[in-house]
Specification:
homodimer; 565 residues; Rossmann fold; six-stranded mixed sheet; 19 helices; elongated
Chain lengths: 565, 565
Amino acid sequence: MTHLRFALAQIDTCVGDLDGNADKIMHYAHLAAHEGAHVVVFPEMTLTGYPIEDLALRRTFRKAAWDKANWLATELEADGLGDLYVAVGTVGTDHASDKPRNRMVVLHDGMVWAGYDKHFLPNYGVFDEFRIFAAGDRTVVLDIDGVRIGVAICEDIWQDGGPVARLADEHIDVLMTMNGSPYEEGKTHTRYDLAVRRAAEVGAPMIYVNQVGGQDDLVFDGGSFVVDRDGTLLERSPMFMEHLGLFDLDTDAEHQTTGDIADLPDPDEEVYTACVLGLKDYMAKNRFSGVCLGLSGGIDSALVAAMAADACGGHNVHGISMPSMYSSIGSKDDAADLAANIGAHYDVQPIEPMFNVYQGQLKLEGVAAENLQARIRGVIVMAYSNSLGLLAVATGNKSELACGYSTIYGDAVGGYAPIKDLLKTRVWELSRWRNRAAAAGVGIGGLRIVGNENGDAGTPLPGGVMIPVSSIEKAPSAELRPGQKDSDSLPEYELLDKVLAAYIEHAHGRADLLADGFDEKTVDTVMRLVDRAEWKRRQYPLGPKVTALAFGRDRRLPVTNAFRE
Amino acid sequence: MTHLRFALAQIDTCVGDLDGNADKIMHYAHLAAHEGAHVVVFPEMTLTGYPIEDLALRRTFRKAAWDKANWLATELEADGLGDLYVAVGTVGTDHASDKPRNRMVVLHDGMVWAGYDKHFLPNYGVFDEFRIFAAGDRTVVLDIDGVRIGVAICEDIWQDGGPVARLADEHIDVLMTMNGSPYEEGKTHTRYDLAVRRAAEVGAPMIYVNQVGGQDDLVFDGGSFVVDRDGTLLERSPMFMEHLGLFDLDTDAEHQTTGDIADLPDPDEEVYTACVLGLKDYMAKNRFSGVCLGLSGGIDSALVAAMAADACGGHNVHGISMPSMYSSIGSKDDAADLAANIGAHYDVQPIEPMFNVYQGQLKLEGVAAENLQARIRGVIVMAYSNSLGLLAVATGNKSELACGYSTIYGDAVGGYAPIKDLLKTRVWELSRWRNRAAAAGVGIGGLRIVGNENGDAGTPLPGGVMIPVSSIEKAPSAELRPGQKDSDSLPEYELLDKVLAAYIEHAHGRADLLADGFDEKTVDTVMRLVDRAEWKRRQYPLGPKVTALAFGRDRRLPVTNAFRE
């Protein structure tokens, strides 16, 4: 009987940070050795971070990554870990074309062993790999102590045929994969179903190691796992945190032994945690320790402030109330209550004095006057950002952004927009979930997430409430003119969000939407709003992080587009 | 002897505007027939516009394009043009994968004839075609009245091998290509050299029809041409305007007869005209009739205002002088003179009153106070944009943007940035060229460009001067604090621009730059400025149109990037 212990090192890397990533690999290799592992597997492009986009094309960067991989192999041996097999992802070079390759190498005995290059280079949705890399064309079977290990990288297992199909004839004992698979709601089950098919295809257990953490506008959720060739789940690491999972392979056994299976969060907790992790890592990797944002008393800014407090602690959140002549007393109270609940800094900066001076010169009317209010607020938020070194966060949700219910250079100001992918109805659901969690004892910073691997319950919330109930329950309003309500301009959100999902996410045309059962008036209203907003947004770009994801997760559209459905 | 007359229809299309593009195809087909042509060739993706990005993935759009191609074939026949062979580009569908194809079809006898699908799908720099389209795999030789016509689309001729190599064995009489080739300085000669090689390869004359006009952040320069198999230039259409060129093929002749050869503009005229065409078409295709911009009296805003006047007439340009307590009298005079020269609307909006009210509440210092001035100006420019329906244009040049000498949500505000790809030294050169042209009688709107095919000399400039000489000659200053000069923070532009070209455009690392002969202090200063600016710009996105092109024409970089050269 041959027995081999695999460690699944689910870590959070940073693009371009070769030193930091190498140090983390070293740390987890030590942990794995301490647990008696023979092989430790890291996520896709561990050493370079992922996705690295056109940075891979820079020759100086590829040279530095190669040097760092060699340094790492040497250091591992010097630390007494030369016997360990350390599979890391990095960037290689195809010397024929001088193009980069997405590569797995194995560090062992102080050497960097020739690796495996990813075959299938995804080039859809958020992925641009075919643009950057040359495709690999070899299948690789590693032989470690007589165990035959087939390898594959991420997209290689999502496409039929290719390296996995070829491994089916290779009598492998295990399929070992490294992945950088971004979070999408429901993807845990999709990945598991896929792995079951691939394990059956190669007739061996499959190891799936995924990256965890936020990188730019993507969130990687971890959730690494192992499935047996009969589809039995053998191991599952927790989502959203760094983790070292273990899997013992017995090549003679008909069925492998089941190890630790982490619980899955409920759907609202999962999405809320993904948003917080994205913000937290965006701050960490871009060296921000705090955020600033406008607090209107409405639900969007309240939810974003709550997420920010969970990401960096309430004392690093700077909430700015910027009331105008149209702001209700209730809104101002709700903003103050939220700030008090999370322990945020809280300033009041009335905008009426600035508004009056501008209007003395400009005499604006209608929407131009409404936009002026939003833009004065944008200038104030950026003043806090510049003078205190804070990350300005934008508070727009997907329903608003899709319908153009937002002012460029106004409330859209910010370097990161944590809820841009959430429809308004989901904003309410997540707010209610966070309050339920608070009541159940999840304090500020108490989420199970990178940096809280041991499950600290966080800073308790006074009275067990995070988001003021009246912010959740009142009718939404931008408060840019007297008595304004969102429902003056938009259909009710329950209906609007259903139409948006069909029109934007599922690309239904007008005829499809009518066949979906939506009434003609609503369809035409929403299509007109969305088309106009998309056109406006394209005219005055809000920047890739807001537009690319707010308006359909996977669309890259021309600015000029005269086509109408 | 077989004789065939080809018409090269170099036209300006609009993405998504199936109706407008079809009408223009119809118009040029009539012109071609009137000139006795047998075959008329249009640019790549004529009917849909180019580049259409992910719009091609929308099934409703592909259906509409197919219907429109059929309508066009029917209408051509109804108009008595059924005998003409009309080669147009459009989007097709690969029914096996349900992916779009980049397709040439031939309209004849009231029918849409099966076409040719582009083989090589560029996926570098500004191109994303592999993301969108399925590649074609068939070579196509059309037989028209016994003449064998090989066809290819754009990138097919840029790659060795593939369809052109296969055509070498097909004894074709002519190689007919449709192209959507974006403008780059010097590309006229590159294209010609390439065509000479391909014509020799297939042993036949080659027809190169290129798109003309601005589309989003790209400019297509036209300059369609024909070369004989021995490399002789047989026809050349003018750059930057719509044109119907003619080429007579005699299949028995050893050498073909030379037709019209348009002059090439001088290098400064070429770049200036490309910038104006980009702005002009951005306005037209996004339905703006006028622009607004801040006029500081400096050279950047002066050049942009001059370009805007050439694009849409001085009476559609709204210049706003926004002096602060630090603005010199000379600057204010220069701004007023420029506005008067081009006949622009001119308003003075002092920012000191707003600045004082903000500062009463915020008490900012240093860079935060400087940014506040720029952002107050941004709010005012956007107020003009909103209340008058004008396109706000940003005036930053490439040297400033690369070094971070710009304020987000401040002077970077705008939907289009006409000189974002020009280094500062080029800004001065183009300003001097425009004044020389003005002195030589080129009035406002008098450029040879789409819409001015007949060469109208434009509106004469008073005194033959467009840009005030003192704007060109004075030392550059942002005037955000007393006595400030650009040279306080930046190396002299003559040197800076050379380092930027090497570091950004040619991706030279630190060691390369030292080997280039730049001194260590300058190299380190510029690298630090550029890296910091790129990081800041990625943190707070300025939007794709400013970032993507300002910072190297072909780079797509991650937001988070800890790598340092």
